[in-house]
Amino acid sequence: QVRLVESGGGLVQAGGSLRLSCTASGGIYRINAMGWYRQAPGKQRELVAAIPSGGNTNYADSVKGRVTISRDNAKNTVYLQMNRLKPEDTAVYYCNIDTKDWAGRSFDNWGQGTQVTVSS
Q1: Torsion sign across C-alpha atoms 116, 109, 68, 88
Q2: Is residue 55 pLDDT above 80, yes or no?
Q3: What is the mean pLDDT of the chain?
Q4: Model pLDDT for residues 13-44, shown as the tens digit of each residue
Q5: How far is residue 74's CA from residue 77's CA, in Å, rounded to a whole number?
Q6: Fewest Cβ atoms nearer than 10 Å: which of 14, 24, 64, 78?
Q7: Using alpha carbons only, what angle is made at residue 30 by residues 28 and 34, rounded to the nearest 5 degrees?
């Protein structure tokens, strides 16, 4: 059973920065893609950034140039560095990690969500 633990959310003023972390543990043979999504009140969950096991990262247009996704494979951890935050970045942020277990089964795992609130 894969467990994801997120941290790093909070309240910040517009223009500030936050760094989110998400660590996966339990029954993992391999980690494939890792990503961050967010969901604002009354809106659908949307992709913020994704980083595959190999290849290029991709970002939502709304965060390009302000957000950087990175991963530490040795720690099974994905990070989201967010700079120049705006009030419209306010949302619950969820990490998403695709894993394979030793039997070759694939799992799409979600974190519990961490609140990011940007005040104007």
Answers
A1: negative
A2: no
A3: 96
A4: 999 999 999 999 998 899 999 999 999 999 99
A5: 8
A6: 64
A7: 100
Total Cβ atoms within 10 A of residue 63: 22
Buried b vs exposed e over 10-47: b needs ≥16 C-beta within 10 Å? eebeeeeebebbbbbeeebeebebbbbbbeeeeeeeee
Residue type, 39: Q
pLDDT value for 8: 96
| Of 118, 102, 106, nearest in space to 13 by CA | 118
Q: Please state the rounded mean pLDDT for residues 49-64.
A: 93
d(CA 113, CA 94): 4
